[in-house]
Amino acid sequence: xxxxxxxxxxxxxxxxxxxxxxxxxxxxxxxxxxxxxxxxxxxxxxxxxxxxxxxxxxxxxxxxxxxxxxxxxxxxxxxxxxxxxxxxxxxxxxxxxxxxxxxxxxxxxxxxxxxxxxxxxxxxxxxxxxxxxxxxxxxxxxxxxxxxxxxxxxxxxxxxxxxxxxxxxxxxxxxxxxxxxxxxxxxxxxxxxxxxxxxxxxxxxxxxxxxxxxxxxxxxxxxxxxxxxxxxxxxxxxxxxxxxxxxxxxxxxxxxxxxxxxxxxxxxxxxxxxxxxxxxxxxxxxxxxxxxxxxxxxxxxxxxxxxxxxxxxxxxxxxxxxxxxxxxxxxxxxxxxx
Amino acid sequence: xxxxxxxxxxxxxxxxxxxxxxxxxxxxxxxxxxxxxxxxxxxxxxxxxxxxxxxxxxxxxxxxxxxxxxxxxxxxxxxxxxxxxxxxxxxxxxxxxxxxxxxxxxxxxxxxxxxxxxxxxxxxxxxxxx
Lengths: 338, 130
Hints:
The complex is a heterodimer. Chain A is mainly alpha-helical. Chain A contains twelve helices and no strands.
């Protein structure tokens, strides 16, 4: 009887994974038919997600999360940790999707080939990465929610508890190297077809000095101000709040640019908005989020803070809205031609 | 004072007698492991705190300088390659206007006619002539 029940449960899990795979395949294939594909963006999202998982979790934790998602029963704490892994994977996919769009947007604006219409087309195409990120996040949230529900009913085991404190240097180094490779290769794929002037012109375009200084300076200052007791949450708050301030400051500068009818002012503001949001999202996904993940997995905290969860959801969404606004600001003339 | 000491000693004896229970070996081993983990975590956290606190003032100065420099550079309108590219695109958009974008329904993609007559291909279109 128990064997039959186990088989039925495994069958249900297999079907659930099959449906998830079908959803992903449907999104990709429908994109292929409608012409809305972004191969470089998809590559960045998938490889970036794997890298981000390795930055925050050990191989054993990742393996256990996959096993529990495939139907292996476990103690309450183990299931909670597995649920947290999938929640973190969904978070990373969402943040990386929007960050990939911002990066793609920068490259689209940095290349002037194809005239205004061609640039507009590439800017629109950059939004597809966010769509991929959202679909992937939705798929990863399914095991997260199921495991969280199972954890509530599961018995607490005596041997269960905080994960043993073992160094995970190999995973972290692999994660960061993989992420650097994903970033570098994506930029290479994206800029490959465009004409370039001088050595490393796209590096100059992407490394926006003021945005880099404000985001990292602001994040460190805020984290120091919040203090050590908040742990990694201070970094999440630092990057997200600095990013939000940059978005608002950039918008105000752009609006003043429209009032003064100054293309230079508007352009400076748009460049600041795109670059600052991209750096803030990058800081969230490669610095703040892995630190918070370690705190949770090592049992130093029960779970991520409510504010952290809010920022992980809201800040990428606001960035996406601001990318739409910048698109409108770029292509809309200030006065009627002629 | 002596009466109080006697009372304490009596209480200690009582506690020793009440708690003198042999724990099962696996429970004892588990407890020892948890205590070792707790100690290791505490020591590690203390080390981290010390390492974090030591350069704290330096980090504070550096972050404020970075922030101020970034705000000044952005506010004073320093030259930036991305902003220059956007300005160039924006100037083009000012000349051409949004009327040059022609949307076609019933096709898999969006076809755009640039102001200079170039036909630009969007994903899904088959031909490009620029």
